[in-house]
Amino acid sequence: MKIEKLHHIAIICSDYERSKKFYTEVLGFTIEQEVFRAERNSHKLDLSLNGQYLIELFSFPDPPERLTRPEATGLRHIAFSVTNIADTVKYLQSKNITPEPVRTDEFTGKKFTFFTDPDLLPIEVYEL
After folding, report:
1. Residue 93: its H or E element
2. Which end of the chain is more exposed for a tag (fewer CB within 10 A), N or C?
3. How far is Cα 84 from Cα 81, in angstroms, rounded to an integer?
4. Which residues of 75-105 are buried (b: 16+ CB within 10 A; e: fewer)?
5. Predicted model pTM
6. Is 91 in contact with 82 (CB distance < 8 Å)?
């Protein structure tokens, strides 16, 4: 098997409209396709960033909550590259999002921080 690249990340949200607004208006993703699957009572939103398809956002009736954060079995977090961590923190704060204190990666010397989406999914921003 030869993997070429990451295709997408699938996220199940508890409040579709709230998460749709967060990923598009706060994080700046572009809607590629939006469908409602009546047989599943489920929305599916395909999102891209800078022309690259990255996230499938799903809604399902009454999904269970995430058990623990961030060291639960399964996906730990998603991470996005940014050019300036200080500017990113200021932007997030302007959207009433409080990121964790900025840390420095002990191996690369790069700065990073975490914040959460509306369902408390950890999101990392990592300075290039």
Report:
1. helix 85-94
2. N
3. 9
4. eeeeeeebeebeebbebbeeeeeebeeeeee
5. 0.84
6. no
**Residue 108 near residue 100, CB atoms below 8 Å:** no
Structure tokens at 2: 């030869």
Length of the chain counted residue by residue = 128
Tokens of 86: 């200080």
Task: Label residue 120 exposed, middle or buried (CB < 10 Å: 0-12, 13-18, 19+).
Answer: exposed
How, if at all, do strands 52-59 and 111-116 pair? unpaired
3-state secondary structure of 24: helix
